[in-house]
Amino acid sequence: MTETAPKPARRPLEGVRVIEMGQLIAGPFAGCLMGYFGAEVIKVEPPGGGDPLRGWRVLDDGTSFWWRSLGRNKKSVTLDLKQPEGRDLARRLIDSADVLIENFRPGVMEAWELGPDAFKQSNPGLVYARISGFGQTGPYANKPGFASVCEGMSGFRYVNGFPNQAPVRPNLSIGDSIAGLHAALGIVLALFERQGQGEGSGQVVDVALYESMFNLMEAVVPEYDGAGVIREPSGTTVTGIVPTNTYRCRDGKYVVIGGNGDSIFKRLMVVAGYPEMADDPRMATNAGRVVHQQAIDEALANWCESLSSPQVLEQLEQARVPAGPIYDVADMMADPHFQERGLFEQVEINGKPLKIPAMVPRLVDTPGRTDWPGSTLGSHTETVLQEVLGIDPHTFSQLKTSGVV
Questions:
Q1: Among 86, 276, 322, 375, which is least packed, fewest CB within 10 Å?
Q2: DSSP SS3 for 62
Q3: What is the CA radius of gyration of the chain?
Q4: 221 in the Ramachandran plot: left (φ > 0), alpha (ψ -120 to 50) or beta?
């Protein structure tokens, strides 16, 4: 008898076709999530260079490592949308799809006659996801919407940093990724609505980068409107919650300690050698600890400086105080919990292994997976045009000669 490999688990978005026409990060991240959980994602790229992300940051044989992750599970199709024939092929692909993802400047798709109205009759069930800096409407709609600008206007950058210093940017394009998450959520919500209402009930999903970051602002708006309070930057702390901070240890490494629960605070101060603070009635609740934040942070900083980070973390774990190290990527990849949770997937690039991050959320019965890493530009063009649109080899050859593909 011969053993056969177990059949991969079904994924929740299998049977959904997505046309991705975005570039760089926000749109492609939404498409990456869709493909990871089973959707057929056909990525339309311009001939020649393709998505600029292919050449960003650290390269391997001319292609970025980032592309291998963000381009996973996508079929790369090249179309020159500046030519009528290219736009016609794109239109036909979109007509065959359940979802379109685009993150061009508002108005570009309409100029190509590929806006939402163009498909109301031919594909009324289409979920048309649009990602831009400031949304499709309003006075700022046509402003250039890079993530850095949108993060600033969202309120995020203002609270991210230290008092009396320039706001700090995380070394990530977080606005793009958060917008991509919102787009993926919006797409799934629209598909769920279509399932209940019928195939003709597609809709536009309008995602703005600044609004996606604004969505993370917790109580900033009601605190200002109700009490006139503007939340300010607070460095490594969180305003109004004490103690929660980052402390430097004797070995030069940092640990994060979250001791803001009333009983947790008592255990924390006892293990740190400050039982008098643990029993001080003025610090028994968070409101009192906020008043005495400086004294508490100084005590914890002194304790951490007297010990190595492993010693600090071991003592805090025994005392059941939430704490952890500050990891870089090498620490993450060496950590057994990351490994056990399956946060790294290995793919093969030109015969060489490469680890890329797995994607969450984790679905126990229908998990996502990486079928292939980001592929070479246009590697699926002929197959997709033949199988989806019925383009014959002779016509394809003519399209290639004319530079449409």
A1: 276
A2: coil
A3: 26
A4: alpha
3 state SS of 321:
coil
Specify the DSSP class assigned to residue 210.
H
Q: Nearest to residue 168, comparing CAs of 157, 178, 179?
A: 157
Strand (E) or helix (H) holding 42: strand 40-45
- Residues 241 and 243: their CA atoms lie apart, in Å, by 6
Residue 1: pLDDT band (50, 70, 90) is very low
- Give the H or E element holding residue 181: helix 174-197
Instruction: Evaluate whether 321 touches 267 at the Cβ level (below 8 Å).
Output: yes
**Model pLDDT, residue 4:** 60
For the annotated catalytic residues, the residue numbers are 176
Q: Is the separation of the CB atoms in 230 and 277 below 8 Å?
A: no
Given a contact cutoff of 8 angstroms between Cβ atoms, the answer to whether 19 and 42 are in contact is: yes
- Residue 370 gets the label, from left (phi > 0), alpha (psi -120 to 50) or beta, of beta
Query: Given CA atoms 115, 116, 120, 123 in this order, what sign does their dihedral have?
Result: positive
CA distance 276 to 270: 8
Distance CA 211, CA 51 (A): 25
C-alpha 163/C-alpha 260 separation (Å) is 22
Instruction: With beta carbons less than 8 A apart as the criterion, state whether 31 and 22 touch.
Output: yes
Query: According to the model, what pLDDT value does residue 198 have?
Result: 81
| Tens digit of each residue's pLDDT (9 = 90 or more) over 141-151 | 999 889 999 99
**How many CB atoms within 10 Å of residue 145?**
25
DSSP E strands, 91-232: 99-102, 127-132, 204-208
List domains and CATH numbers for the chain: 17-216+344-401 (3.40.50.10540), 244-248+254-325 (3.30.1540.10)
**Exposed / middle / buried, residue 147 (Cβ in 10 Å: 0-12, 13-18, 19+):** buried
**Long-range contacts, stretch 257-266, CB < 8 angstroms, 24+ apart:** 257/300, 257/316, 257/321, 257/322, 257/323, 258/321, 258/322, 258/323, 259/300, 259/321, 259/322, 260/286, 260/289, 262/286, 264/320, 264/321, 264/322, 265/289
Query: pLDDT tens, 107-134?
Result: 999 999 999 999 999 999 999 999 999 9
